[in-house]
Every structure is written in C-alpha cells, then in structure tokens.
Write a structure and sequence with these properties.
Layout: E1 2-6, H1 13-23, E2 30-35, E3 39-42, E4 49-52, E5 54-55, E6 64-67, H2 73-78, H3 83-91, E7 97-101, H4 104-110, E8 118-119, H5 126-131, E9 135-136, E10 141-144, E11 149-152, H6 157-169, H7 172-181, H8 195-198, H9 200-211
Helix pairs in contact: 1-6, 6-7
Length: 215
C-alpha cells in the first residue's frame, strides 16, 4: 500500500509528518515523499528541510495521497499548471483516498476535487477555499467517501485524519493500535485550540506574531 505525501516549498512540516507518523506504521504501508524534483524541500520558515525521494512522474498510482498545507500553497494554487495540481488530477482517479491537511485543501480544490463540496482547512483560509469552489466548514474532518476525498482542518488535525484513514484502510482496531503506538492521548494545558475558544487577547497576540512572520 503506497502512501504519497507531496512536498513543496514552504509547506507546514507537521501537516505531512503528523500523518506520516501514524500511517507508516500500518501493515504493508510504504510512505513516499514526492515532489517535482528529488531532493530537499524547505518548510515555511526555512528552518527545517524534508527530502523528496521520488518525482511525481515516478509515483503514478499511489493508494493514498496526503497533501499538506502551509504558506506555500498560495504559490501552488495561483501558478497555472503547477506540477502538484496536475499530479493530483492524474492520480486521484486511481487512489483509494485523496486527502489534505490544513491549506492542502486549497490544492485539492484547485485540482477540481472539491467543487461544490463541503471541506475544511485552517480557520484563516476559509475565504480562500470558498473562492476555489468549495464550501468551507468548521468541522475538524470532512469526508466524502463516495468520492474518496477527505479534508482535515489546521495542522494537528492531520493526526486525527490519519487515525480515521487507518480505520478505513484496515479496521478500527488497527486505528486504535496506531493511536496507542504514538501515544496520542492529548491533554493540552490550555483550551485555546479554536477561534471560538481563544479569546481576543490570544487573537491579538497571534496577529502580532503573524505580522512578524512567526506564525
């Protein structure tokens, strides 16, 4: 079972690495990081590099695709004929599931997979997702199983989606085993993980960090 995670400049690391940590442990799973060219791709702040081991042309029939998000998705969806978008359009008809995390859903929308469908993304990208023809929702995971498309909200939700994928690909016991393996039993010290919960002081601070390029 081949699971492909595409890499592009300025992606968010956890969007891809979170699902990777879960899915690579499934029986017979082979995870491949793929890009337009083989080699290192830098994440959004440039501090971390991830390595693509295969090109899009070498991964033609993955069973599962997990598209991460990040600030680099803006370039992907605005560039005419971007290789990532064209690759998704080419491989989706044969995948078992084509999925996204965070603003990776913008890429799926650009590829035409979310036209007129509900989908989720990072809370800061609802308007951008709507402009690409999808119907944004605040749900953490949105499934369109007949169409084999699943979208997850911001960053950390990719782990939740990977556990759900584990259930769909194997069974619920496998998913629970994956959850236990990575000891995913969150007890966050703060309850500020959504806009509704954060409060104005947190939103103001986040706005300042974003203006400084720190978020």
């Amino acid at each position: 079972m081949q699971i492909a995670i595409p890499l592009f400049d300025r992606l968010t690391a956890l969007d891809g690495v979170g699902p990777y940590e879960v899915l690579q442990r499934l029986p017979d799973a082979q995870v491949v990081f793929v890009s337009n060219t083989v080699g290192e791709v830098r994440t959004e702040n440039g501090f971390l590099g991830l390595t693509a081991d295969a090109t899009y042309g070498e991964v033609l029939s993955p069973d599962v695709v997990v598209v991460p998000g990040g600030t680099g998705t803006k370039a992907v969806v605005t560039e005419h004929g971007h290789p990532l978008v064209e690759w998704i359009q080419a491989v989706h008809p044969k995948t078992r599931f084509t999925t996204s995390v965070c603003t990776g859903s913008l890429v799926l929308a650009k590829a035409g997979l979310l036209q007129g469908k509900t989908a989720t993304t990072h809370w800061g990208a609802y308007a951008a997702l709507e402009k690409l023809g999808a119907i944004p929702t605040e749900e953490r995971i949105v499934e369109h199983l007949p169409d084999r498309v699943i979208t997850a909200a911001g960053v950390s939700s990719g782990i939740d989606m990977a556990l759900r994928l584990s259930e769909l690909l194997v069974d619920d016991v496998a998913a629970k085993a994956m959850q236990l393996m990575v000891e995913y039993d969150p007890e966050p010290p703060f309850d500020a993980g959504s806009v509704a919960k954060a409060g104005p002081d947190v939103m103001q601070r986040l706005s300042e960090y974003m203006a400084d390029g720190k978020a």
